[in-house]
Fold this sequence. Notes:
membrane; cell cycle; mainly alpha; transmembrane; Septation ring formation regulator EzrA
Amino acid sequence: MFYILIGIVVVALIGYLGVVFYQRYFVRQIKQLEAHKGDLMALPIPERLTKLRSLHLTGESLQNFERWQKQYEQLTNHNFSTIESYLFEAETANHKYNFIQVARILKQLRAYLTETDQDLLDVQDALENLLANEADTRQKIQQLRDQYQQLRKRLLTKSFSFGPALDALEATLGRLEIDFDQANALTTAGDHLGAKVILQKLIAETTQLEDQMKRIPKRYNELANEFPEQLVEINDTYQQMLNDDYQFDDRQIEVKQQHLMDQLDKSTALLSDLDIGSVEANNDEIANGIDRLYDQLEAEMTAKQNVTTQLPIIAKFVQHAEGQNHELLLELDHLNQSYALTHDELATTKQLQKQIGAEKVLIEGHQAKIAKHEAVYTAIAEDLAGIETRLTAVEKQQQAIHDQVANLHQGEVVANENLHQFELELRNLKRTVEKVNLPGLQKKYLDFFFVVSDEIQKLNHDLNQIKINLDEIAKQLILVQEDLDELRAETETLIDSAMLTEQLLQYANRYRTDFPAIQAACVSAQTIFNQEYDYAKAVDLLATALEKVDPGAYTQVEKTYYEQKSDSTR
């Protein structure tokens, strides 16, 4: 019983301690949330509202201010009282130990505080932005006014550098002054948002004005000083060149100068309208036009110097080409009496003579124009370059023709030497065959021998003509050489076959008694040798028969023959 009482007391004590713990825990939570409420109420929003009221806002700025002020009043009148109600309910429930209800109320309160916190921060940020806009607008207006004053000062002190653009620039300054007054009026009235709109316009206009004032002096200096001075210089130079008897193919120089003057007037008009982009583009065209006129005049002066130097040289070049062509024609006429000129050398050289004559006429024409002070030197210089190029080509053709015919006589000498060599070799071949004392020669061999002989006789006949065609003779030389080489090879084969036949017959004598086939082969071979004159066939017949009774016999006889032949020719 005693232990039961002790257990009851312990349980009661633990329950009491738990109630005390939770009650104190929630008291701390309630105080923290109450402190959060105090932080929200301590936000400096009322000070911002007071400061903004003192600015006497108007227009859109006032509308924004009133909207945020109304929202703040709603938050303070409604939200704070709602928060207080939550806190009271939580404290009451906590005193009654209704901890579940306390937890629910505190959860709702935290969510509500978070929402209120964000709404108050939005109000604070908006009010601070209104204050910042006011300060920023005033500061930027002052900065722009300082920039404006500097531009006005520059325009007054350097008005001479803006030329016809001065009036338009001053008008722009006047418009800026009006915009500044309007911005100041809106700012003073408290309509800072309205002033900010005007401020953006002022920034764009001031930036544009500053850019124009940077770009105009350079372009006006071009129009007022550089271009006129250059055009005067060009005109003076042009007139002096005319006085010095210069001529120009392009008779539009005066027109071009007038066109450039008109473009100067156009740029001046564009400048007075502050159309700087068009002025710059037009001035660039003027500059390019002036450069082209300078180049044209300079080219004519340079061309005169070149023509003065080159014309005598090219004239001598023509004379040299003419004399060289005359000598070449004489040489060709002489050679044409003895040789057939098969590459149109004479016709080509006569055509070159006409071409040289045409170049000579051009040179004389240029010399006449210079003498009459009618020369356009750039045209003459270009023409001289062409003449020089064509004469160089003529000279190369003359040299090629000369080289082509220079060796005609030497070619005739070489051809006669080859002819003599061919005749000698043919006679040697004939004597060689005769020395072998063959019983006869086949018709095929004799026909080919006489063909080669006829070719040599024709070559001799053509070389003894009054007018020789060396191209045709060169072809004959090649043909005769090829046929003679073939005849030499056939002759050597014929003699070798005849000699081998005789040696094979001698070798076969040792077998004729014992071998009837050898006897028959020898009889047939002698018949072929003495009657048909087919010595190669006789060799084949004997070699075949001997190989059957004495393998390797033919190879041994052949080897011995060629060794003896080689020794005899050393």
